[in-house]
Design a protein that fits this description.
Elements (H helix, E strand, L loop, with lengths): L11 E6 L3 H5 L6 H17 L4 E6 L1 H5 L4 H6 L5 E4 L8 H10 L3 E6 L2 H14 L3 E5 L8 H14 L2 E3 L1 H9 L5 H14 L1 H14 L2
Parallel strand pairs: 1-2, 1-4, 2-3, 4-5, 5-6
Helix pairs in contact: 2-8, 2-9, 6-7, 8-9, 9-10
Length: 207
């Protein structure tokens, strides 16, 4: 595989790391409602295209709280990998889940960028995986912390992405009718100005 190859539903795995209340409280790099919107858009992209998805949490009972219920609603049948380590890659269950998915491209979003995204990104790349970091679905404890972490992993070879970019890269062509309606619905609900443009085209232009 190559970073020049576009993402598709058969070459990638989507990973959500530590989307929990205590971690959310600490986010100061992005508006937290915007963050949640982007995370849910990414989750819907994974569900629509049936991409293997890994959910993991850290110290749920003692510190961080349960994973966001909005994510669990999208993936009700997924097991959640509970960890004590800040670095997901230090947990054998997490690494086994990545290996079991059998995909070389890992699409990661995490709280916080400077810890829970940066650490496993570096280790996954060292292990031979390509990592695509979803920048607008991850948050750091400050703008400086988030940006420094993104620069660190980009310099190491990670590829920055956005949630909408992942969705549209999976869809690729509007001739893909089996996912068209679900993609349009996700865009209208979570796509901001783009979603409003789609809504306007449907109602005012196409009737």
């Amino acid at each position: 595989m190559s970073k020049l190859d576009l993402l598709n539903p058969t070459n990638s795995t989507v990973i959500f790391i530590d989307f929990q209340p205590q971690m959310t409280f600490g986010v100061a790099s992005i508006d937290r409602q915007t963050l949640m919107n982007n995370v849910i858009l990414l989750a819907k992209a994974a569900r629509i295209f049936r991409v293997p998805t890994i959910l993991t949490t850290v110290e749920t009972k003692s510190f961080s709280g349960n994973m966001w219920p909005q994510l669990l609603d999208i993936f009700p049948d997924n097991d959640i990998i509970e960890r004590s380590s800040m670095n997901s890659w230090d947990d054998p269950k997490f690494v086994e889940a990545v290996q079991a998915a059998g995909r070389s491209k890992l699409i990661m979003a995490a709280l916080w960028t400077e810890v829970c995204l940066a650490y496993p990104t570096l280790d996954a790349m060292k292990a031979g995986y390509e990592v695509y970091a979803v920048e607008d679905a991850s948050g750091g404890t400050s703008v400086v912390a988030h940006n420094a972490a993104m620069r660190r992993i980009e310099q190491a070879g990670a590829v920055p992405m956005t949630a909408l970019q992942v969705l549209l890269e999976y869809q690729r062509t509007w001739a893909r009718k089996e996912t068209y309606d679900d993609v349009i619905a996700a865009v209208k609900e979570h796509g901001g100005a783009y979603g409003q443009g789609v809504e306007y085209a449907y109602t005012m232009v196409h009737g």
